[in-house]
Amino acid sequence: MAWLDxxxxxxxxxxxxxxxLAPFFPEPxxxxxxxxxAAGDLTRPxxxxxxxxxxxxxxxxxxxxxxxxxxxx
Length: 73
Fold this sequence. Notes:
The chain is mostly helical. Helix content is 75%, strand content 0%. Helix 2 (9-21) packs antiparallel against helix 4 and helix 3 (29-39) crosses helix 4 (45-71).
């Protein structure tokens, strides 16, 4: 997890806002894909890739916050 220490928290938050929520209108892409996942409509490989792409910054943010908590920062 040392690679995670190299990323600043600010950079990860910016990635969450820009990549994680883009496009912003009519609704964030990740929200659309999560609704598809909950409805069982997430079957096309492109949609699955899209969910992974837009969810990655949020996963990295969670990992970073857990790492910071473990190190006591």
